[in-house]
Amino acid sequence: MVKAAILEKPGEGLVIGEVELADPRPHEVLIDTKACGLCHSDLHFIDGSYPHALPAIPGHEAAGVVRAVGSEVSTVKPGDHVVSCLSAFCGQCEFCVTGRMALCLGANTRRGKGEPSRITRADGSGGVEPVAQMLNLSAFSEQMLIHENACVAIDKDMPLDRAAVIGCAVTTGAGTIFNAAAVTPGETVLVVGCGGVGLAAINAAKIAGAGMVIAADPLEEKRELAKVLGATHTVDALADDAAKQIVALTGGGVHWGIEAVGRQASADLAVASLRRGGTAIILGMMPLDCKVGLGAMDLLGGKKLMGAIMGMNHFPVDLPRLVDFYMRGLLDLDTIIAERIKLEDINAGFDKMREGTSARSVVVFD
Q1: Among 160, 188, 200, 336, who pairs with 212 as Cys (CB 3.0-4.6 Å)?
Q2: What is the C-alpha separation between 73 and 145, in angstroms, rounded?
Q3: Where are the domains of the chain?
Q4: Cα-flanking dihedrals φ and ψ of residue 34, to 5°?
Q5: CA 107, CA 110: separation in Å to the nearest integer?
Q6: Which of 61-65, 117-121, 336-340, 357-361 reaches the highest mean pLDDT?
């Protein structure tokens, strides 16, 4: 039995309890979780904005040490340090073979509907009940049981609390700069929302050689963090003339407008700040009724709008490179992590996220 944070009812926080994980199947990996970041994507499920089968264990931005592997696993071995990633890939579908692994929905890497749960807990009457595996990971737990194509081995010298945030926030933010946008040195980049994903995008834009990196956020402390990570200019995202300020700063608008918070107004600001031929990239999980669009004049000006789930990563290649960036002092993960907390303090960590005043909180397991 291992300890986990369980979502039983949306809007009522997480409950700490004990669960049991099955033995690894042929392509599964059992991991001792060492650290897991708190991500806004988890909060959407915890607060009920997005539906999910319950009870379930959230958490997906994690790092740990491999305890055991299934009989067919060839990519990792016991003792390896690994980072998990929710964009597991099958390697065989149209998206994988055309280099868009982040879009893969291959059934053989995911829990199928009606498939017996691989995680259970006592039901209080002498039996057991299934616990759903959120995003096929469920990392708010002392152990994870996942497909081998949902994790990658990393340098053992990499601190695992920093490695954890690479699994989602950094992969999404930095991946957007390097993969989805493929920023050319000298281009201008706007990042709306300076949480973990936005800060990683800002840091990556600096690494990529962007000529101007503009951070837009309502909170001054977040804008100051953005400067530490590479922002050359900052703007109050809630200012009535925020888009006009950005267009004036850049002499006509930005090449890339990146929305990294998941709000309608943030997406609208990213679009409104584009120059002719510019592209807005929406990263945040929007409310399900949100729509983002381009007007007729935007289309005549060659402007573009796109999503980039998980930064359109190629995570078996990208994650070790991002680890190397950190080890060489290029990627600043220390500034992105605001605090390290125990699993028992996870609800307080999400309360801080709702306040929006700090960057990433990371649960560290003993």
Answers
A1: 188
A2: 13
A3: 2-166+313-364, 173-309
A4: -110, -30
A5: 5
A6: 61-65
Instruction: Tell me what the mean pLDDT of segment 311-338 comes to.
Output: 95
Backbone φ/ψ region at 302: left (φ over 0), alpha (ψ -120 to 50), beta: left
Token representation of residue 143: 């152990």
Q: Give the whole-angstrom CA distance, residue 280 versus residue 181.
A: 10
Angle, helices 264-272/242-250, rounded to nearest 10 degrees: 30
- pLDDT tens, residue by residue, 59-72: 999 999 999 999 99
For residue 201, give both structure tokens.
């995008």
Q: Which amino acid would we find at residue 196?
A: G
2-166+313-364 shares its CATH topology with 173-309: no
175 touches 312 (CB < 8 A): yes
What is the CATH number that goes with domain 173-309?
A: 3.40.50.720
Write the burial class of residue 304 (CB in 10 Å: 0-12 exposed, 13-18 middle, 19+ buried).
middle
Residues with catalytic annotation? 39, 41, 44, 60, 168
Task: Count the alpha carbons within 13 Å of 271 in the hemisphere toward its beta carbon.
Answer: 20
Which residue spans within 50-142 are E strands per DSSP? 56-57, 61-69, 81-84, 119-122, 128-130, 132-133
- Phi then psi for residue 174, to 5 deg, are -70, -40
| Polymer length in residues for the chain | 366
Residue 356 predicted with pLDDT over 90 = no
pTM: 0.93
Nearest to 350 by CA among 195, 173, 125, 134: 195
Residue 160 has pLDDT above 80, yes or no: yes
User: CATH code for 2-166+313-364?
Assistant: 3.90.180.10
Residue 140 · residue 134 · CB < 8 Å: no
